[in-house]
Amino acid sequence: MEREEELTHQQSLHLIEEMIYKAKNSYHESGTSALLWGGTIMFCSLVSFGNTWWKIGWLNQVWWLTFLALVPQIVISVKESKAQKFKSHTSDAMSGIWISFGIAVFLLSYFTSAVKVEGSSTLFLILYGMPTFATGFTHRFTPMVVGGVICWMAAIVSIYTTSTIDLILFFVAAFFAWFLPGLILRRHYLKEKSTKHV
């Protein structure tokens, strides 16, 4: 068996510093996904809210846009994955959490459309808060932590409101959980990208 070369003290320190730098900069997020989902949920909520007065039949199908949004999401995920130079266990865990969230939302949507559950808005808002809070907490990104908490507060409020008001709660939750953090991430990403090219 070949003996590995021992590293000098200087080489060891350099290797450790390099690993810490890679780990610190591994959260490669452009904000595009958060903007996509925040914008989609906000749009669907607003259209549904307006349609409570307009009563235009085909507008009831606006929530199908969330399934169409999966196409650009897949493209964004593949592109960002290729751009990532370093993949940590944390990013794998976050991917698992968000995939689980997507599956849970799909199953809950199917369940509520089949059974017509009263108060399902509360369940969706609780669910929205979970991966948002977990992502913010894991990456120490306060806007997403706050967004997750706002989702849960909206869930509590939705227990006492009508389904029409719940649509406004969805709008508010999507804004604070995804859209606003997405804008912050996007600004940071573009600023960082421009300094690398200077």
Task: Report on this structure.
The chain has helices spanning 9-24, 32-54, 65-68, 70-83, 89-115, 120-138, 142-158, 163-196. With 198 residues, it is an all-alpha fold. It has one domain (31-80, 90-196). The protein is elongated and about 70 Å long. The mean pLDDT is 89.
Index terms:
0% strand; 198 residues
Structural class: mainly alpha
Distance between the termini: 48 Å
| Spans where pLDDT lies below 50 across 5 or more residues | none
Topology as a string of helices (H) and strands (E): HHHHHHHH
| Broad shape | elongated
How many discrete structural domains? 1
- C-alpha Rg (nearest Å): 21 Å
Number of beta-strand segments: 0
| Largest beta-sheet details | none
What is the residue-averaged pLDDT?
89
Number of helices: 8
Strand content: under 5%
Measured as a percent range, the helix fraction is: over 70%
